[in-house]
Amino acid sequence: xxxITQTQPGMFVQEKEAVTxxxxxxxxxxxxxxxxxxxxxxxxxIFLIYQGSYDQQNATEGRYSLNFQKxxxxxxxxxxxxxxGDSAMYFCxxxxxxxxxxxxxxxxxxxxxxxxx
Amino acid sequence: xxxxxxxxxxxxxxxxxxVKIECRSLDFQATTMFWYxxxxxxxxxxxxxxxxxxxxxxxxxxxKDKFLINHASLTLSTLTVTSAHPEDSSFYICSAIGGxxxxxxxxxxxxxxx
Lengths: 117, 114
Fold this sequence. Notes:
The structure holds 2 protein chains of 2 kinds.
Chain A: E1 4-5, E2 10-14, E3 19-21, E4 24-25, E5 32-39, E6 46-52, E7 60-61, E8 64-69, E9 74-79, E10 88-96, E11 105-107, E12 111-116
Parallel strand pairs in A: 2-12
Antiparallel strand pairs in A: 1-4, 3-9, 5-6, 5-10, 7-8, 8-9, 10-11, 10-12
Chain B: E1 4-7, E2 10-13, E3 19-25, E4 32-38, E5 44-51, E6 57-58, E7 67-73, E8 76-81, E9 90-97, E10 104-105, E11 109-113
Parallel strand pairs in B: 2-11
Antiparallel strand pairs in B: 1-3, 3-8, 4-5, 4-9, 5-6, 7-8, 9-10, 9-11
């Protein structure tokens, strides 16, 4: 079974609108972390936001928020007020095990977001 | 914030040569570094996990004699693609963690083997 599932290969959104990128995960480890990264066409991976499995509140970072629904095992990324510069590939990733354990990340297949005028 | 530097960013070389890619953590000590490979329009696939001072742990299906990883210090890990062939052409990207930081990535290396 896939550990990280991103069901949207591509998404379009109009500038200034909000967009939700879906991510579901599968793990039996009670301690885990969920990450979102942005990868522009230039290739670098830009860290956006992090949610720990024990965090009580949804993570927020500026225009990015993570809609964490633990019972549903979903960790959707919400981008508010989309900008043209948000056009990129977005990856959801999971670390199984506690922070500091040196544990690897497992990535989803990504969602290509295109912001239109 | 934390920065990971990867060099070179782009390399083209002839089939049969070896290519070394460096990954450096610039402002933190990276106890663990990871090496990924990414084909166009696909996800990152972990190749190996590298801990300072010990042998790298390779993922299933990754040839350790083909992809040599050295993590000699807390700020530097290298990936050497030995006797590279056209099928080794890909985007290689490293990441590093340490000091409670989230995993930070280098800018990647585009490798083209002719």
